[in-house]
Amino acid sequence: GEENDSSGQPLNLKEQSIRDVLSGLRRREINLLIATSVVEEGIDVQACSFVVMYDQLTSLKAYIQMRGRARDKNASFFVFEEE
Description:
The protein is an alpha+beta fold.
């Protein structure tokens, strides 16, 4: 059967794909996620150990949220900036 959201409505294909990827990351079946700044908020993957940010930091809040994606105890966080 198809998966439903918290209100019982069927998920659309994009939502289901996102959930499948996040589930694969949590189960360690997937070990690389390339994403836009959309992961600044709301995405929580405890096993994340390496974050590379290519976009310019727009605010302290954005930095804190992106840095927070690297949850693993020995995680690394890198930001590329233009000179």
